[in-house]
Each structure stands twice: as C-alpha cells, then as structure tokens.
User: Fold this.
Amino acid sequence: MKINKIILTMAASTCLVFLSYAQNQAQKMTDKKSVNTVHKFEVEADRFADLQVLRYQIEGFDELTAKQKELAYYLFEAANSGRDIIYDQKYKYNLTIRKTIEAIFNTYMGNKKDAQFQKFETYAKRVFFSNGIHHHYSNLKFIPECTYDFFKVLVQGSDYRLLPLNGKSIDDFLLDLKPIMYDPKFENKIVDLASGIDNVKASSNNFYEGITQKEVEDYYDAKMTKDDTQPISWGLNSKMVKENGVVTEKVWKVGGMYSRSMEQMVYWLKKAVNVAENDQQKLTLSLLVEYFKTGDLKKWDEYNIAWVSDVNSRLDVVNGFIEVYDDAIGKRGAFESVVSLKDMIATKRIEAVAKEAQWFEDNSPIADEHKKKEVKGITAKVITVIQESGASAQSTPIGINLPNANWIRQQHGSKSVSLSNIVHSYNIVGAKSPMLKEFAENEKQIERAKKYGSLAGDLHTDMHEVIGHASGQINKGIGDPDQTLKNYASTLEEARADLVALYYVLDQKLVDMGVMPSIDCGKAEYDGYIMNGLITQLTRLNIGENLEEAHMRNRQLNAKWAYEMGKKDNVISFIKRNGKTYVKVNDYNKLRDLFGQLLKEIQRIKSEGDFKAATELVENYGVKVDQTLLKEVKSRFNKLNVAAYKGFIQPKLVPVMNGETIVDVKVEYPTDFLKTQLELSKKYSFLPAIN
Ligand SMILES: [Zn+2]
Assistant:
C-alpha cells in the first residue's frame, strides 16, 4: 500500500517486481530481433505533463492458431468492456468529466489551435492516462491549466445532448463542475493514508459513501470468523453505502452495480469459454463468468484456484476486481485486465533457473541451518502482453504475482509473470535516454550496459523471483517476518531476494547453464545496481526527503553496506569530476563476496526474527540520504528533461469475418494516444455518468 514516486509501478501482492528506473535507462536490447524491431516500430508516441506514452508490440501473435487468436479477441473485448469501471471506482465524478471532455472533442467547433485549447487538451490526455482526474501515481488531483472561463466556453460551444447533464441546466452543471475540477483542496486525494484520521472519509475514491471507517470495520469484524483457514476476501467486489441508516454493500455484478459493463464482460467471456484451449482453461473461464454473474466471493476463490492450475495454456488472462491499493483499508479491488500469451523463449530461461533452484540453495552463502532442504519454486513464466485495461493501463506493471489471497498461495501456489514486451519497449526508450551518459562513470560501463544491460536486468528479475524469495527457511518457533521484523520486513525481504540475484549473476554457473553469454553481463548488473542504489534512484525524491519505499530502501541498503564494508579494499569508489559525483566498482569478485556476506546476515535476521539487527541495518544504510548529493543529482536530472512516468497505447485486435465466423484476427498498432482513447470511449461506454 505504500506509495512513492516510482517510475514503474506494478500490481502484485506479496512481491512487487520493480524494474529500477536506472536499470531501464541503462538497458538496451542487443539481440537481433530487437534491433530489427527498433527500425520498423516506433515505440515513443506522445509526451505531455510528466508523462510519456509508448507503444508495445505483440511478438508471437502470428504464431497462434486461428482458434487461439479468436480466444485472444474475446478476452480483449472483455478487458475493454470493463474500462468505465475503473474511472467510476477511482472517483464518483470521473465519468462525468470524461464524458464532458468527449463531448467537447467530438462537437466543439471553435479554434483548437488556441493556446488555451492546447492546455485543455493536455488536461484531457492526463485524465485518459490516469483513468480520472487524480494523478495515477501520486493519487493527487491535477488541475486544468486552461482557465475555468475558457472551459465554460468549450462546454457552452459543444452539443448539449452529449453532455452528462443529469437533468441540470448547463449553467448549474458548470457550477457543479467548478470545485470538482478547479478546487485543488476539494476531494483531492484518491486514497489518504495519513495516521490519526478517518482514512475512509478522507479518501476521495468511490468505494464508500456516507460511512465511517469504524462502521466499515465493525461490519467486517462481524463477518469474519477467527481461525478460518480459507477466509473470504470480504469487500473485494462492492461499494459500501449507508441507506436509511443501514450499512449495505452494492455488489459489482450482473444485475448489481456496474451491471451494464459486467453484462458485456460476461457476454465476451462466454464466447471465450467456447474456444478455450483445454479443459482447465475452460473451467477457469467458466468460474469467472459465474462469479461475475453472482458476485459470490467463494466463486472468486474457486476461480483463482483453477487459474493457478492453468499452466499449460498458451494464452492467459487476469480479469476482475483485484488490487486493493486504492482503498485506504485495502479491501476493495480495482478492476483490471491483462490478456497475454506465453513467451516461449524467455520462459525457457526462467524455467532453466527454476530447475536448478536446489543447486542455487545448496551453494548459497547463507548458513546451512537456514537453507531449505527441499526448495519448492513458484510457477514462473514470461508473458507477452496482448491487452491491458483498468488499473493496469495506461501505466502498467512489469510483473504480476497472483492471486492475492494468502491461503490460496500457500495451499495451491501462485503464478509469477514478467511482461517481456513491456520491458522491451522500456529498454528501447531507455537506450536513447541521456541518463546513462550523464551518470555512468566511464565509457566501459556505458558499453557494457548497452551490450548486456537488458539481459542482465531480466536475469536479475528472474532470480529475484524464482530463487530469491523462495529461498531460506525460518527457524522453528519464530513467527513470520511481518510479526518479527514488522515495518522492516518488506525492505529486508526485497533486499534478500536482490542479494540472491546479485550473488549468482556473477556466477559461472549461469554461463554453463547457457542463460548468460559471459561474466561481463553480471558486471553490467553490478555497475547498474550500485549506480542506482547510490545515485540515480535519488532522482525520484524531493529535496529534504529520505527513503521510505521498501524497494528503494533495499537498494540503497545493499549498495551502501557493500560500499562501507569494502572501503578498506577500495571495492567501490566515489569519484568527483567537474562538480559531478560518480560511482565505480573496482573489484567485482570482492563485491560479490560482500553481497554474499550481507545475504547471510539478512537471512539470519529473518530466520531468527532479530528485530534489533533489522532496525540497525535498515536505519543505518537504507533510509538516510546525503542531501548535498541529492541536490546535485536532482539538478543534473532536471536538465535531462526525462518524463517521470510512462504508459502505453494499447494495440487493437480486429477480427476478420467470414459471415458470422471469425476466421482470423489482425493486430493494429495505433499511434495517436488521444484518438485511441476517444475511440475506446465510443465503443466501450456502457455505464452512466453517475453510478
Ligand atoms: Zn521481490
């Protein structure tokens, strides 16, 4: 639930897969396929405010059978059918504003070259990017830069029949919109986690109405049974309101709230059931249909159990009310969908690592008594994204680890996926970015980063997920880290998984396994990690701030600890040149030893539940930021004019019909962000302005 200014965010439960910003900037694809792609496919599409809009390609779509393509098409339609829902969930008046924007673009006849209109257009694009009027990352309301008077002119000059007036006069309608759009203090934050307040009341999302946090908590306390080994995810699929003094849930289902979108989703998912690849997938999709029709959360659990077991299908889909970050008390799920196909080649790489999991555990530098005798990995695969919608668009995760229910994860397992074509597009943009040139210490670092950075990043992510989190064991009688290590648990867990990856990325074993061409690839990862942990990740902070977010803390902890401990052997050095600070790794093997030592210690802390040692480690190395360095880094970064956040235009699947039958499906790659969004609104507006 912690929010920070991270460039790439993702949707996961226990593990967040972050591709670090600097890693992005430093990476460049070197394989032949990618080089070809660079020439024929333009990744960069638009740039406005603090955002850059990119495009991605669906590699491998042509390899699918006609039936698989048909399945992909139905899942694509189902994903888009839920688009309105995310707007309404984030804020009650988002659809009103979006429909107003659409009426203006579709019918306003005035001068669109006008500077005020350009400002309005930027606002409109920001609304489409964030699925509403609050920033997709900071959750804060953004205000149009065009004046309210100009906005009035636009509304008055548009076709009133297309405005969501809801029985009001245009004048009253405009008066109502004024605080909603122009008052920065009015309902200004989707989710407010400040302590000592009623977080439910303070948050402007549309999950609750007329109800206090206490009332919500009492409602669910009464429902929950202690010692339930298979607890229901209460509240996941409803809005909670008070009607005539009674607390009730308005369930998101066919016949309930959002019915018109849900009916569409069910319509397309039923078609998908008919062309499913195998029985397991058929069962999975049928359970999803049942859940959307009934709103029964037991069905949702059944669906997730079936979904986890669906490992042999080429196509896969995430669809439903899933991530709970937008709810201050973490109950209500935002709608999202990700349609994907398995990336067969990259999956082989991750499977090769998973297959050797026991070797990695046996050869780990951690103490023998903390090693797992028998490692059970998680199902991991690499996917190519076909379509994203809801909370995973336009800003997207690069990795997904689901389901969220802990008991299902423990009893039935989970799926961990990394989104290869999304990462690929980031890499292409990153290679052009001036970040590497500005912050790398020497040409050799740059050269190595360009040659190996992308693969090194992939390997790091694979190992972090598959052999990192899965490794080690907690001593008998010691509780889970969230009880023993408390607020330091997630930082240390991420640090531990990173260290496993770092320790092995310099191991000849990877070369012998055939997943890494040379140890130089591992060196590129060390350069990038140290540079990011000590310098470039600071670009996300404001002057005066220290580190808060778990992944950022963990990276600085690992890098700074290694720097301090390696000082006497000059393992890493800070270099100052023309007023600019750089870091350089001088001894890669010694650095590897240091990573191994730290891994051993952090595993000990976790295994023994040593809160005191956890506190000292994180507070001494992972929190404090050298403010002089921060100022320098910020001023260098600001000169580069790099967009802080990125998102995507989605590809479009177009069926080729023969009469009533789909005989093929073509992929189109739109280039105009605004136009694409307006088209989506034309085709997929199922919900009224107010729900
Ligand atoms: Zn992780």
